[in-house]
Amino acid sequence: MSKVVLLLSGGIDSTVLLYYLKSLGHEVSAVTFDYGQKNWKEIKMVKLLAEKTQTPLKIFKIRNLSELAKSSLLGKEPASPNQTFFVPGRNAIFLSLATAYAQSIGAEEVVYGSTLEDYNDYPDCRPEFVENFSKAMEIAYGVKVSAPFINKSKSEIVKIGKELGVDFKLTWSCYYSGRKHCGKCPACLKRKKAFEENGILDWR
Amino acid sequence: MSKVVLLLSGGIDSTVLLYYLKSLGHEVSAVTFDYGQKNWKEIKMVKLLAEKTQTPLKIFKIRNLSELAKSSLLGKEPASPNQTFFVPGRNAIFLSLATAYAQSIGAEEVVYGSTLEDYNDYPDCRPEFVENFSKAMEIAYGVKVSAPFINKSKSEIVKIGKELGVDFKLTWSCYYSGRKHCGKCPACLKRKKAFEENGILDWR
Fold first, then answer.
1. Distance in angstroms (rounded) separating the CA atoms of residues B185 and B80
2. How far apart are the C-alpha atoms of A19 and A25, rounded to whole Å?
3. In A, which residues are within 8 Å of B126 by CB distance?
4. B199 contact partners, CB below 8 Å, separation of at least 6
5. How many CB atoms lie within 10 A of CB A153?
6. Which residues contact B72 (CB under 8 A, 6 or more apart)?
7. Exposure string (b/e) for B158-171, b if CB count within 10 Å is 16 or more?
8. How high does pLDDT run on average in chain A?
9. Does residue A114 register a pLDDT over 90?
10. Which of A35, A107, A183, B78 satisfies CB 3.0 to 4.6 Å to A65 for a cystine?
11. What percentage of chain A has pLDDT greater than the value 70?
């Protein structure tokens, strides 16, 4: 049992990770980033989730990230599922900020929700990135970085969440900020599939 | 010869590094951070230096860094040389942001001015930090991180600068933002010593 800082995005992976870390007895503080993403619903869901699970939440504004990074997750045009959703440098920036926060509150570890399915699209979700980044952070700030779900599929993560009693209504996967999940974007399709594989029909 | 991004602080180390990288034929873009530091003179000097050396300069504002980090370099009380000047997580955050910037402009490497004298006080200036951090950044974003002066003393760096014709009047070391260097704070004492060892008497 230790004090950890979790990067919480409002999606399935980091939400299940929150419940998972708490089930292991860890004291979890959450951090989320308001980086001018179009999907404002993410932040709304993170706030609800933190409230419901009584998790201390730090929202860190880094609005000018768009000056550095060009991606369809940022900016004013409507998001398109066909565009690339990689924000250059995003995980390293978020993990560095979370590490500084961890150090300031005396947490031993920063945890984030990379999964097996992020591997191909996001090089900063790969085990060799986590290993080297964690070594650097431990040398410099005495804080480790880990991604406990890095070898798990979304279906396996939903299974863990189901067992831990996660309220999936508090998670958001869709690229759009509608009232309900759109059901058509790649994130919705993945969500639906993982839920169906676990016998959950009410996947929205 | 390649395209590199340099973290420029306005101090001797990163200034000499700028001249050094240019002397090797590299195409240098500079980035500096306005993180609410008391020493506003740093940013003023960086601007002058970039102008004089015709170096493209990106100033990245990250004013809310103080929410994460507690240090006497931040905040409203007057700086005292006896306080700790370590901003937790600072180099990792700056290097991550610089890496994102490097990737967005197609630069191959991020360079910063850690020196032998930073070793004891700043763990994020040590070779083993740079090595692991660089590996992580290369895996994730295809950008290397290096610190060419990591094994050099300030006196050696001043020597290199002298040979390269650095205008040291454009560098600022003092903890305070006075008209001249105060001559009494630890940074001034180090500066003076390094200049004297190189026969430079007009060290302010």
1. 9
2. 10
3. 139-140
4. none
5. 15
6. B79, B80, B83, B84, B85
7. bbbbeeeebebebb
8. 88
9. yes
10. A35
11. 87
CA A33 to chain centre: 10
Mutate to test the interface with B, among A74, A133, A134 (most CBs of B within 10 A): A133
Provide the shortest C-alpha distance from residue A108 to chain B (in Å): 14
Q: What is the pTM of this model?
A: 0.89
Tracing tokens 């804080």 back to the chain, one arrives at: A143
| Residue B122 predicted with pLDDT over 90 | no
User: For the segment A55-104, what is each residue's pLDDT rounded down to a tens digit?
Assistant: 999 998 887 776 665 544 444 444 444 334 446 678 999 999 999 999 98
* pLDDT greater at residue A177 or residue B79: A177
The amino acid at residue B154 is K
Using a pLDDT cut of 70, give the percent of chain B over it.
87
- Do residues B33 and B120 lie in contact, with contact meaning Cβ atoms separated by under 8 Å? no
Q: How many CB pairs (< 8 A) connect A and B? A: 120
- B61 band by pLDDT with thresholds 50, 70 and 90: confident
Instruction: Give just the sign of the alpha carbon dihedral A12, B141, A91, A137.
Output: positive
Mean per-residue pLDDT, B137-165: 97
Q: How far is CA B129 from CA A131, B12, B93, B189, in A?
A: 13, 22, 13, 27
Q: How much is the pLDDT for A71?
A: 43
Mean of pLDDT values over B85-114: 88
Most A CBs within 10 A among B33, B35, B90, B139, hence the mutation to make, goes to B139
**CA-to-CA distance for A90 and A71, rounded, in angstroms?**
11
DSSP string, B146-189: E-TTTT--HHHHHHHHHHTT--GGG----SS--SS--S-SHHHH
CA distance A98 to B68: 8
Residue that the structure tokens 């009494």 belong to: B184
Query: CB-CB: which of B92, B137, B141 is closest to A140?
Result: B92
Q: Residue B69's pLDDT is what? A: 55
Which tokens in the block code for residue A49?
């989730």
* CA–CA dist B180, B35 (Å, integer): 23
